[in-house]
Amino acid sequence: MQTAIQISLSLATCLWLQSCSQQPEVTTLPTAAPSVNKITLSGSHTIGSILSEIAKPYETAHPGVKIEVQENATWRGIADVRQGTADIGMVARSMKADEKDLLAFTIAKDGISITLHRDNPVKSLTDKQIVGIYTGKIKNWKEVGGKNVPILVIHRSEGVAALEPFLSYFKLEKSAIRPDVVVTETDELVQAMVGKPQAIGFSSIGVVESIKEIKILPINGVAPTNENVSSGKFPITRPLNVVTKNPPSTSVKGFIDFSLSQEAQAIVKQKKFAPVK
Q1: Of 248, 246, 230, 249, which is closest to residue 238 (Cα–Cα)?
Q2: Would the pLDDT of 201 be above 50?
Q3: Which pLDDT score is estimated for 21?
Q4: Alpha-carbon distance 272 to 268, whole Å?
């Protein structure tokens, strides 16, 4: 009897020791991914090329923020902000009277000037000559001091932001233009001019300044430089704006404020545009 009791006690002790030696199960909860605050920009290619670069140091300094730049067109940037599909619109022109529902912040300035092929010997054109060329009254380069070759007029399609300041300065109606080629994007303009020394176009100074096949002419005797654009001396200038539908959120305002900082404005200058500060 005593032996049976001893055996039972021994078994109970063994089972107790075995249960104590087992480690309790540890439940590992999934680690939540760090939240990312995405700021979406939509609109002008010209401004997009600047803000894509400005976004890099901003994202580095703010790991929880992701800047997404969608380059399309000024009108699209306005539409996307109004519809709420973009936080910031990129508008490469002055704001219109019917756009007072938007808040605009100018982050840079740009000039619009006449572009020729680098092999064209013409170094300058008067305003009257430019109007004559675009309206079809002047059709050969020899009429303005160039070679005896026909002029190939490259025009910009309606809706392109660079078109409005060009027409406004030269007091031209859209219907008066007599183009040979119509393009939308600056890349298309460059492609149309490369290999065609007889071509003439107009574009953003900042966008085409570094393209070796193209040269930029002065307007009314004023050189197309960042300094002249920034000071307002250059005749055809435009603001490069970012716009929001409502007063910007803290994160959106943070990026806009950074775009106006000395660090960001140095990037504006590196990109061949005129800084505002």
Answers
A1: 230
A2: yes
A3: 46
A4: 7
